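WARN retry 2 of 3 for item q-0093 after timeout on previous attempt; input resubmitted unchanged.
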Amino acid sequence: MVDSRALLAAVSLVLFLVAPLAADEIHLKTGGKIVGTILSQDEKEVTVRLASGGVVTVERERIERIEEKEDPKQAYAERAAALPAEDSDGRLALARYCLENDLRDEAVAELRRALASRPGFEAALALVREILEPEAKRAMERASAVVRKGATAAAFDLYREILDRYPETSAATDAELAIARLLLSMGEAAQARERLEPVLARIPGHLGAIESLGRAALALGDYAAALDASLRLSDGRTRSIRRLVELAGLPTDPGPTGTTRAFEEIDLLAALESPAGVRRVAARLLDADRSGSVSLEGADRARAHSAVVESEAALGRNREAREACRAAALSEIPADRKDEFARLARRFDVALRYGKAADGVDPDRVSDLEAEVDAYLSSADEARRREALGRIREWTQGNLALLAAVLESGRSYPTDSPRGTSTDKVRLASGEEAEYARFVPSGYDPERAAPLVLSLHGQGGNGGWAVDLLDEEAERRGYLVAGPSADPSKGLGFSSYGVELVIAVLADMKAKYHVDPDRVYLDGVSMGGHATFALAGLCADRFAAMVSRCGAATTFFGLGYSAESQLHVPAYLLAGEKDGMVPPEHVTRSARELEDHGVPVILRVIPNKGHVDFPEENGAVFDWLADKARPRDPERVAKVMPEERYGRAYWLRVDSIFTRGQSLRVPLKNMKGEVIEEFTIQRSPAKVEARVAPGNRIEIRADRVASLTVFLSDRMLDLDSAIEIVANGKPRFKGKKERSVEYLLEHCRKTGERDRTYWNEVRIDLK
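OK item q-0093 returned
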C-alpha cells in the first residue's frame, strides 16, 4: 500500500518547484513543503490553492509549521492606493517592488504614472526602457520580417502597435522611422514628412530621419528643405540640389524653355535617386501635354512616359509601372517605342505574378509556360500531359522556382465576377450537391490575392446567415467570405460530410476567386464554432487561424480532435458568461488545452451574454486576423490520428497506422442526438511529431504509425546536399533527392492544390 504521507511530501516538493516566488509555505513533519495560498484553516486542517490552480487540504497533525507570506498583488494594490498621484519617487520605488515580485505589468504602469506626474524623470524612464526594450526589439524584428514578405498593410499595424505599447523605447523611434520609409516607398512623401518631423524634434541629429526627410522634400519639390537636409548630412548631393533650388526660382514657362527645365529637373532628381520626385515632375509634364499648355514632340513624350515608368519601378510599384507602360503604348509616340512599352508592360505583369523567380526570363516564354502548366493539370489525356511536360522541362531549364511560382500564381481570374452576396453550389464526392453563400467586397481586384473567411453557421442556420454576420467588416477590410449551408442532419465540420463540404467550398472559391492561400480563416458560431476546432485539427495546413463563437472542442467529434495537431493555427475564442448551451467553462477548458500544446489563444468571456454570435466583436476579430498567415513549411509539425484519415500535416503525411487489436466501432451523433455515421477509431490514437533539424536533417517521433511520407522542398532543406531522416532514433534515409519537374506537377495535379509545391518525397516504412 502506498504511504499517503510520503506521496503528499513528494507531490509537495514538485509543486514547490513551480510555485510563485511569494506564497504561503506549509512545512510538513515528513520534511516536505507545500507552497501556495492558504484559503482557509482551523484547528483540524488547512486548505491551500496551489500554483497549478488545484486545491489540497492538509490535516493539522501532519504540519510542523506554517509561514504565511505577503501576497504581492494585494500588497501592491494597497501601496498604490495609498500613494499620492504626484509622488513620482514613491511610484518608482513601488515599481521596483513589483519587479522584485514578478509583477511586470504593474511595474510598467507605475513607471508611466511617475513619468506622467514628472516628465523627463530619468530614473523612471531608464527603468521602463530596461523592462520594455527587449520585448520591443523582438516586435521590431517580427515587423521587419513581415516587411520582407511584402505584407505592407500588416507591417503598418505591427509598427503602430509598437508605438502604442512601447512609446518610451528606442524601438518606438525605429518604428516611426520605418513607417515613414514605407510611406516613402509607396510615394506618400507628405505623410512620411509628417512622421519624420516629430522624430527630429526629439532627436535632432538622427541621421536616418534627416536622410528620409531630405528624400521626402525632394519628392514634394521642396528643394530648399532638401538642400538643408543634404548640408546636414554632407553626403555629396549638395551641388545638384542647389541647381534644383535655382530651377525652382525660375518663372514657369509653358513653352520650350519650360520643357527643357522640366527634363533638367527630371535628370537631376534621377541623379539624386529620388524616384518619387521624378514621377511627380514627369507626370506634371505629361498632364500639361494632355491639357495643351505644353506641346511635346513624340520623342519627348516617350521620354516623359519612360521617366514615369522607371520611377514607378524604382519605387517597387510594378502594378503602377505596368499601367504607365500601357498608357504610353496608347499615346502618340514613335511606333518602335510603342512596341517597347508593350513588352515592358508584359515584363511588369510577369514580375507582379512571380517576383524574382522570373528575373531574366522572356515574358512571352512565361505566357507559354502558363498555358502548358494549365494543360498538364487539367488534361485527362496522358499523351497531352506528356507533351506538356516536355515543353515545361524545356522552357524552365532547371528553374523550378519559376515553375513553382507559375503553379501558385499563374492563373487568371474572371474580371466580371459578381460583387456583394450571391449563392453557388458544389458537388461532393458522394455525388450530392450542396449550396453555399459568398460575399465579395466591392473593391475586390482579380489581380490581387484576397483573404478568405469560411463562416460556419450554427444548428438551424445556413450559409447566408453566416455570411451576413461578417459582410460589413469584410467589405471594409477587403475580405472574401464563404458560408457553406450544411444539412443539419449530417453535422458541420465534425462529420465526414461536414469536412468534405467545407473543403469543397474552399476549393470552389479558390477556383473562381483570387484567394490568398496563406490567409484562409475559419469562423464559426455554436455548431459551426465546434466545427472550427475539428477542421483546425484535421486539416491544419489549410488554415491560418480560427475564430470560435460559443463553440468548444467537445467530445462528440467522432473524427477525432487533437489540439496538438492544431499547433500552427492560432485561436480566438468567444464565450458568453451566461451561455447555457455551451457553458463558458467548456470554452475555457478548450483554451487551456490549446495553450498546453503551444497554440496561441485569445479567450474572451463576454459579461452578461448568452449563446449568441457577438457581431459587436467583429472589429476586434478582424484586427486580430490582420497579421495571421499560414506557414508553408513550419519547422515542427504534429499529428494525432484516432483513425486512418486526414493524415496530412504540412510537409508530412501519415499513410497508415497500426490497427490490430485496437479498433473500436463508434457511432457519430449530431447535436440532436441522431446518428450521422459510424466509423472505426483506435483506443490509442497514432501520433507523430517531426521537425527540421540542423545539418539538413529531419527528426521524427512516431507512435502506432506504420508508414509515412516526407515531402521535400528547398524552402526547408538544401536539396543540393545529402539529407538525413531519422525516425524513432533510427536512420531511415540518407542521401540526395533530385528536384523533379514531373513530381512537382504530379503532386499538384493529384492533390488538386496548386499552392502546395514540393520537389520530391521520401516514403518511410516503420513496420
